[in-house]
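[09:14] KT: can someone run the structure on this one? pasting the chain below
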Amino acid sequence: MIFEPGQVITRRYLRGRWCTWVQPMRVVSDDTHGLLLWHPAGSDFARLVDADGNTQHEITLDQMRDPKLTILTWQEYDILVLMPPAAAYSVWWFFRDGVFAGWYVNLEEPYVRRPDGVDTTDLVLDLVVTPQRQWEWKDTDEFAERIGNPLYFDRATADAARAEGERLIKLIETGEFPFDGTYTDFVPDLHWAPLRLSPNFEATTVPTS
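[09:31] RB: done, structure tokens below
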């Protein structure tokens, strides 16, 4: 199941029986290096928000009251996202007004393809990297608090996620791919407009297993 350049797919996060994140993405390429996707500022995305306005950053999913996917607008940065095959992470290139503004490493389960997109599970812990390759961990407190929650991950999974992050830190510090300048000059097709979720997008967000 190979996606075609220019095709619009959805990138989803799943957790238990919930879909927690939906983002329409434009396919740049899909090959042995991975799935490369584009999402410009001004595009739609949807995240799980509960009746009190909480997201999973504030409380765990099992504590959320009547959570629903809520459509929001992606702000400020265009992003280029690389999802390498069988990798427990994705790498994001951030651009502001066409200028590269840094990388973001999202630790996540290896993605699974479906006919109209890809699914993964977010592992909470992330890395933020400046254009000068200065890095810092992100969401460390949230990550630690989720360990042992059946909806999130056990200690072994958490340790593996941190180890993968530490492996990527070595690539950051030595300037190896994907932190070697590749894609930092990326220019999207001028005809690629901001992306919209379809009116019935929620009908496709229930996991099938």
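[09:33] KT: thanks! Helices lie at 140-146, 155-174.
[09:34] RB: yep, looked fine to me
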